[in-house]
Amino acid sequence: MGIGLACFLDKSGTGSSRNLAVRGGLHGGYESASIRVHSDGKVTVFSGSHSHGQGHATAFLQLAADYLGLPIEDLELAQGDTDRVPFGNGTWGSRSASVGGVAVVMAAQKIIDKAHKLAAHLLECSYDDIEYENARFTVRGTDREVTFEEVADIAYHGANLPKDGSLTPGMEETVFYEPTDTNDPQAMHLVVVIVDVDSGEVTIRDYFTSDDCGRIINPMIVEGQIQGGLAQGIGQAMMEHVVYGEENATGAGGQMLAGSFMDYAMPRAINMPENFKMTFQEIPCPSNILGVKGGSETGTIGPPAAIGNAVVDALWHLGVRHVELPITSHNVWRALKEEGRFYDSKLH
Question: Which of 117, 140, 121, 119 is nearest to 129 (CA)?
Fold first, then answer.
């Protein structure tokens, strides 16, 4: 049995477009979002970012619903359709929540500000006298109120808008959010492995993680992302290997031999530990209004180092100080044969 630790600091999100350009980047650091409130009070959120499994349809709508004070069932997310959504920079670098999510929130804040002003006009009071809760605008200390749905309907019909033209018809806002800085998720991984010294086979018995992903919007999504990242990291550490052929007498070589998933192994459920044990330290990020940090890449970073340390720990007494990645049974066996004192169970 061996125990391995890995502690790391990641860099996630994006800084400003100008800073990226200085470093040679050809893309912007900003992200976009539009929020359209329809005349019946229902809402469509348009995101320039795009989800391919990260759960934007849940997390982005959670954010919008929270800041708009509406039930999430009244909202829908439009993404990926370039005829409908504003131009955006997409999903990469663990930037969706810290950049795309902030754009959604800022658009929602602008919507509520306009609705707040229209409600004050309709209720004939000052802006500061309006309270908003449970989709209702109320004059503080009275029972006079107007619902969010009624405000949206009046905004589109336009007949009862302020005569001074301070508010225009409709209720739709677009934000291109330019972040000022990146963010730094961090984590510690601890893994317990069992190594069969006769065959070199390594089994992961336990895997523990403690992550700081900043403020967590949806715990289930973040846990799933870390588990998926761990599967990728474990695959990199123990199975995945791109193999090229040797140069032959004619000078030809470099032919990739691991050309399919029959040859290039990826982890299956049987290769994973039965339980991942996760805990979180929510330290808010200072560079965005949500306090969020990246979470989708952190699971992939720790396993190669943590598993490598655990395997060496298990074989330390046999003289092994290093096992080449990927930590296949053959590489472990070879390390015992070449670097350490080869273990023969019949002699021990």
Answer: 140
DSSP track, 231-291: HHHHHHHHT----BPPP-TTS----BS--STTTS----GGGS-S-EEEEE-----TTSTT-
Q: Are residues 31 and 131 in the same domain?
A: yes
Q: Residue 286, class by beta-carbon neighbours within 10 Å (0-12 exposed, 13-18 middle, 19+ buried)? A: exposed
Domain extent for 198:
2-10+183-347
Rounded CA separation 272/338 (Å): 28
210, 125: one domain: no
Note the pLDDT tens digit of each residue in 145-189: 999 999 999 999 988 999 999 999 999 999 999 999 999 999 999
As a whole number of angstroms, the distance between CA 328 and CA 324 comes to: 9
Distance in angstroms (rounded) separating the CA atoms of residues 106 and 122: 24
Residue with tokens 């400003």: 16
CATH number at residue 129: 3.30.365.10
Q: At what angle do helices 148-157 and 102-122 cross, to 10 degrees?
A: 80
Are 187 and 130 in the same domain? no
Number of domains in the chain: 2
The dihedral of CA 327, 330, 331, 337: what is its sign? positive
Q: Specify the range with the lowest mean pLDDT, choosing from 8-12, 43-47, 113-117, 170-174.
A: 8-12
Picking from 8, 2, 5, the residue whose alpha carbon sits closest to that of residue 208 is: 5
Instruction: Tell me 191's DSSP state.
Output: E
Cis check: omega of the bond before 326, within 30 degrees of 0: yes
Are 123 and 188 contained in the same domain? no
Inter-residue long-range contacts of 281-287, CB under 8 Å, 24+ positions, other chains counted: 281/210, 281/211, 281/212, 282/212, 282/213, 282/214, 282/215, 282/216, 283/212, 283/214, 284/214, 284/215, 285/98, 285/183, 285/184, 285/214, 285/215, 287/13, 287/98, 287/179, 287/180, 287/181, 287/182, 287/183
- Predicted TM-score (pTM) above 0.85: yes
Q: Are residues 66 and 161 in the same domain?
A: yes
